[in-house]
Amino acid sequence: NAGVTQTPKFRVLKTGQSMTLLCAQDMNHEYMYWYRQDPGMGLRLIHYSVGEGTTAKGEVPDGYNVSRLKKQNFLLGLESAAPSQTSVYFCASSYEWAQPQHFGDGTRLSIL
Amino acid sequence: KNEVEQSPQNLTAQEGEFITINCSYSVGISALHWLQQHPGGGIVSLFMLSSGKKKHGRLIATINIQEKHSSLHITASHPRDSAVYICAVRETSGSRLTFGEGTQLTVNP
Predict the structure, then answer these.
(1) A39 and B CB contact within 8 Å
(2) Taking a C-beta distance cutoff of 8 angstroms, is the pair A63, A15 a contact?
(3) Which tens digit of pLDDT belongs to each residue from A56-91?
(4) A19 inside 8 A of chain B by CB
(5) With an 8 Å Cβ cutoff, are A40 and B101 in contact?
(6) What is the mean pLDDT of residues B61-70?
(7) Gap from B75 CA to chain A (nearest CA, Å)
(8) Which backbone phi and psi does B43 adopt, to 5 degrees?
(9) Mean pLDDT score of chain A, rounded to an integer?
């Protein structure tokens, strides 16, 4: 049982490049989340989804887009990467909104 | 002032010691979570509690709703307990989780 799988694990981008981070979960969870983790700060919610075909903005959504075309997948896109988006990105999922979340192992993204 | 404050930020202990990590928050909450982030980066949920105390193995989590405070205790600490421990709260409004910065725990053999 893989749980929550994030790809890629590491990536280096140049400013202005675009990329997509993929999150896949095999637990049939309705809720999925994208967070970023920066030094000296707690995890911050970027976007989330309450079910297939739905997305919503979190605390820090600017510069990111998301899609949830299939229940098991939640994609995070950076259309034009900026150095301020250098961070570790975590995907998570949960069965219900108030239930504990299951996290992926993170994607370390550096933007030069 | 952050809504969720953890103390200490860093903690070094010797194997076998009893460890306490504290979490204070400033808002009304419906639940509090404790999570563990492994040195490799993966995050695991340890506890979700809204009152009283929960125990799992050598880990104990307590919460005092009136004082807006929670503690995570580790008994008979072991080097494999070395990790970042994160506190997160969900406000009574049901909004998103708000995370503390984490406590870096190092247990030396």
Answers:
(1) no
(2) no
(3) 999 999 999 999 999 999 999 999 999 999 999 999
(4) no
(5) yes
(6) 96
(7) 23
(8) -115, 135
(9) 95
